[in-house]
């Protein structure tokens, strides 16, 4: 059951932020503007910008500030600039012609230097939601996006957690992810009646903390 589609990442993020049980799992996220980008870089040092509508890692750019100046990475190419205005001008030329979100950068756990995140897919069957898959997505060497269509490698959730964070309690982390998914489903159904399929993209950072990166209503 595909159900209602909702393309806007921002509308889904706003819905989840409205619930205090969930809001602490969401990285700082806001609509893109030059002022917002500068402010978030000063606060976090690195952010990810991504189209409000779109998927498959298309148009996703990592932007950062470090001792060299300001820079951004798109696909496998990184560019460095001495000052913010030079970087922002170059970034404007690279961005696809869509509205963007800015999201606080998360230091994903890694396997052999490659970032990994997790996709949890759920489908509504009658009155009940069923978990269909929980998988890890390991980025292709040299990329920061983990999408399988960009060359990422699929692992089981358990294997991904074991290999990236060998000291954490894997069962407890998987249970936390499942329980968070169930809570999010209830909130999203109240805001967007008719949804029937959801894909949750979760990050687990290097300390083992879970973050909700985004939710898709047409997960691949």
Automatic annotation (TrEMBL):
SUPFAM superfamilies the record matches: Glutathione synthetase ATP-binding domain-like
Cross-referenced InterPro entries: YheC/D (IPR026838)
Name recorded for this polypeptide: YheC/D like ATP-grasp
Domain of life of the organism encoding this protein: Bacteria
One Pfam short name: ATPgrasp_YheCD
């Amino acid at each position: 059951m595909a159900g209602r589609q909702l393309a806007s990442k921002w509308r889904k993020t706003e819905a989840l932020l409205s619930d205090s049980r969930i809001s602490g799992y969401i990285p700082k996220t806001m609509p893109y503007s030059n002022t917002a980008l500068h402010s978030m870089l000063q606060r976090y040092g690195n952010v990810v910008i991504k189209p409000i509508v779109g998927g498959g890692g298309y148009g996703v750019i990592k932007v950062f500030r470090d001792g060299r100046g300001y820079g951004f990475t798109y696909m496998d190419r990184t560019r460095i600039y001495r000052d913010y205005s030079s970087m922002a001008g170059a970034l404007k030329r690279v961005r696809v012609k869509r509205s963007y979100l800015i999201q606080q950068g998360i230091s994903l756990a890694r396997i052999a230097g490659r970032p990994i995140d997790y996709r949890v897919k759920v489908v509504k069957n009658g009155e009940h939601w069923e978990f269909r898959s929980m998988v890890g997505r390991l980025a292709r060497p040299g990329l920061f996006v983990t999408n399988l269509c960009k060359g990422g490698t699929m692992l089981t959730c358990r294997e991904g957690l074991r290999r990236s964070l060998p000291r954490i309690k894997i069962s407890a982390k998987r249970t936390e992810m499942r329980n968070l998914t169930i809570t999010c489903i209830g909130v999203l159904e109240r805001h967007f009646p008719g949804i029937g399929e959801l894909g949750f993209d979760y990050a687990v950072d290097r300390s083992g903390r879970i973050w909700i990166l985004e939710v898709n209503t047409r997960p691949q």
